[in-house]
Design goal:
single chain; alpha+beta; twelve-stranded antiparallel sheet; 285 residues
């Protein structure tokens, strides 16, 4: 079982399942003459600008998250679940408290706990931030417009630049599709996979991240990742980020400038995604 658990964290990104959140229909958006015509790089640049403004407003949040892991394959079926109270306080401080655990103790300890610990550690680190999504680090192609749950979005196909920081920092780099709100340039959904295989033990992996608007800011809503293990089997990790009953914002001038703090909520690859894959692979090895 411990051998099994080590391969489940090494997919490198909480690379997640092909899931469309309930109640959201993906369909071709009707043409809208009032939506500006912008290039992919223009959209990315405006997204970073708006994210900086949203980050400047965010002071505090608290929410109870549910982490669920299901593995089916070599060694049978296994399940683990953990409920965690998460709090964020500007600038860049996160704190997590485990409320409950159930299912496999090995998977809770070797995968879910490492996933939570990894997010707490990366909250104040800059290595993943240097490879963050931007016109300088990623190539993007505008595929068109689509509607997600009645919301108009631009659809971008993205991949890290060949010699950019994202490619050099391979544990952060991914390729995939990003949906950006035409209303306020917020990331609505990211569907992707690692740009490089995170481990020989991982055959393939994907992640699907959704975000939701809470007042003037956007926060993670759900992340589902699927990791296919080379030795046989599939692991799915789902994070439900809760409803954020506590969320405080303030005037833009009251917050830390973007140069000192990168938005922990609206980066298209959530920091916790960077840790889960490694935990999975090393546990199942």
């Amino acid at each position: 079982m411990r051998h099994l658990t080590r391969t489940l964290v090494l997919s490198g990104f909480l690379f997640g399942a092909t899931l469309v959140c309930p109640g959201r229909a993906l369909s071709q958006a009707p043409s809208a003459n009032d939506i500006p015509t912008l290039s992919a790089n223009d959209i990315m640049a405006r997204m970073l600008e708006k994210n900086a403004q949203r980050q400047a407003m965010l002071q505090h949040y608290a929410s109870d998250r549910t982490y669920m892991l299901k593995y089916s394959g070599t060694g049978g079926d296994h399940h683990a679940e953990m409920v965690v109270h998460a709090e964020y306080t500007a600038p860049g401080r996160k704190h997590f408290t485990v409320i409950s655990e159930s299912g496999s103790k090995v998977l809770c300890k070797e995968v879910l706990h490492k996933l939570v610990d990894g997010e707490e550690e990366t909250a104040s680190r800059s290595d993943w931030q240097r490879g963050m999504f931007s016109p300088e680090t990623y190539d993007a192609e505008l595929l068109g417009q689509e509607q997600l749950d009645g919301m108009n979005t631009w659809v971008l196909k993205v991949e890290p630049k060949a010699n950019g920081l994202a490619s050099k920092n391979g544990r952060v780099a991914y390729r995939g599709t990003v949906w950006v709100s035409t209303d306020d340039f917020a990331t609505v959904r990211v569907l992707g996979e690692p740009a490089k295989s995170p481990s020989w033990f991982i055959n393939r992996s994907k992640f699907d991240s959704w975000y939701m608007r809470r007042g003037e800011v956007w926060v993670p809503e759900k992340n589902v990742s699927t990791t296919h293990v080379r030795i046989g089997g599939e692991a799915t990790v789902t994070i439900d980020y809760g409803q954020y009953p506590v969320l405080a914002t303030g005037p833009v001038s009251a917050a830390v400038p973007l140069a000192e703090e990168v938005n922990p909520l609206q980066h298209p690859v959530p920091p916790n995604v960077l840790v889960q894959g490694k935990a999975i692979a090393s546990t199942l090895r």
